[in-house]
TrEMBL record:
The chain crosses the membrane at residues 6-30, 42-63, 75-95. This is OPT oligopeptide transporter protein. It comes from the Bacteria. Keywords: Membrane, Transmembrane, Transmembrane helix.
Amino acid sequence: MLAVGYLSWPMAKGVQGIAIGTAVSALAAVGMRSRLESPPSMIASAIGSMVACFFAIASAEMLPPGSAQWMLKGGIYGACFGIPVALILGPIGLIDKPSINRPQ
C-alpha cells in the first residue's frame, strides 16, 4: 500500500488503500502457509495489515501525502499499531482445526 501510495496517492487513500494492504497481506500469508511448518494466521495478518494501513493513511494528515517522507514515517507509524495487533491475534493460526478426512 505504501508503494502504491507513493506512486499514486489518489489510488491508495481511503478504503482502497486499506483494501490493497489487506489483500496483499492475506495473499502473502496464504503463500507462506504452504512453505512453513508452523503457518501464519491469515486472519491475524489481514487484520494487522488493515490496522497498519489505516494508521499509515491517517498519518497523511501530518505528513505530505504520497511523499517519500510519508512512505517512511507513515509506514513506521502504521507498523507501530499493526504489528502488535497481528502479534496478539497470531496464536489463532496455531489452533488445530478439525479435519473432515482425519480419523477420530
